[in-house]
Design a protein that fits this description.
heterodimer, A: 200 residues, alpha+beta, Chemotaxis protein chec, 7-stranded antiparallel β-sheet, B: 118 residues, alpha/beta, Rossmann fold, 5-stranded parallel β-sheet, 5 helices, globular
């Protein structure tokens, strides 16, 4: 029953992820004054280990941000980048050559927070529209730690029932190149059946 | 050229907005929270203010009220995230002249500042 619901949610969220990517691309393009295209080539359920592997391994230092989802359903959204990829994103957002940003200073963390705010909010809004749910993203909380520490915090919320979370590979592309991150979406376990009914 | 006070707790947003304004020829003063904004307004008397709403130390709405108490003619536009309509209404009642919704495009920032300074 739960596995069926998870499959329905994964299929629904694949559609939502593409819509969210379009919305986020539009928001980022407006913010940065140049066209930013976001691709979501892979949407899948994954374990804690899968999520860590997607950002370079458990001990990889990652940068990102966490948003919680409130409203008709609750849940968690996390956007993570391996540190080097995060710095590339900051350079793209600041309109400076790739390689300029070399540390997670205030400007870098702030840029990643804004990026996560736009991407996470776009996804949450796309999900709400698709499933006819009223959903609100909270402001982003910045993250900078080893991958396993951050991923475990989300998995701790869903391990009791589901075990896996939804992982969306996310590629950001502008005229000068592309960089990639990982978007993790985890509706709280008690919300899965409700979301499956809405998505059916 | 007019001086604009840019108030935002996010360093990236301050940098980006300041870049848009300086490239258009404005002088820019930055503040990173409401309290900082009130102090900078008192010291610099800028021609206009772009004020974020959600900030630590002192939020944008409180800072707007304090700035209007210092200078009732202060020209302030609030910068808001989606879903903060109620706060925007309160800001308008407190004397805000305009509001911008994040993420704001460069043209929109310049149009708001031009209107404030007119």
């Amino acid at each position: 029953m739960l596995a069926t619901a998870q499959r329905q949610i994964t299929e629904a969220l694949s559609i939502v992820a593409r819509d969210g990517a379009v919305r986020a691309g539009r928001g980022l393009s407006g913010l940065m004054g140049q066209e930013i295209v976001i691709h979501v080539p892979n949407v899948r359920l994954g374990t804690k280990s899968d999520a860590c592997d997607a950002v370079g391994g458990e001990e990889q230092v990652v940068l990102g941000a966490y948003l919680s989802m409130a409203g008709d359903i609750s849940g968690h959204v996390m956007l993570l980048f391996p540190e080097r990829r995060a710095f590339e994103c900051v350079d793209l957002m600041c309109g400076q050559p790739i390689g300029t940003t070399v540390e997670a200073d205030e400007l870098a963390l702030s840029a990643i927070g804004e990026l996560a705010n736009i991407v996470g909010s776009a996804f949450v809004n796309a999900l709400g529209d698709y499933a006819h749910l009223v959903l609100h993203p909270t402001p982003p909380v910045l993250l900078n730690d080893m991958a396993i520490a951050l991923v475990e915090s989300v998995y701790a919320e869903v391990m009791a029932q589901a075990g896996d979370v939804l992982m969306i590979d996310t590629i950001f592309e502008d005229h000068s190149g592309e960089t990639a991150g990982l978007l993790i979406v985890a509706p709280d376990p008690e919300c899965i059946s409700l979301l499956a009914r809405q998505a059916a | 050229m007019a001086t604009i006070l840019v108030v935002d707790d996010a360093a990236f947003m301050r940098m980006r907005t300041s870049k848009i304004l300086t490239e258009a020829g404005y002088d820019v003063v930055q503040a990173e929270n409401g309290m900082d904004a009130v102090e900078k307004y008192r010291a610099k008397r800028p021609d206009a203010v772009l004020m974020d709403i959600t900030m630590p130390e002192m939020d944008g709405l409180t800072a707007l009220r304090e700035i209007k108490a210092i200078d009732p003619t202060a020209r302030v536009a609030m910068v808001t995230a989606l879903g903060q309509q109620q706060i925007v209404l309160e800001a308008v009642k407190s004397g805000a002249k305009d509001f911008l919704v994040k993420p704001c495009e460069g043209d929109r920032v310049l149009a708001a500042v031009s209107k404030l300074c007119a």
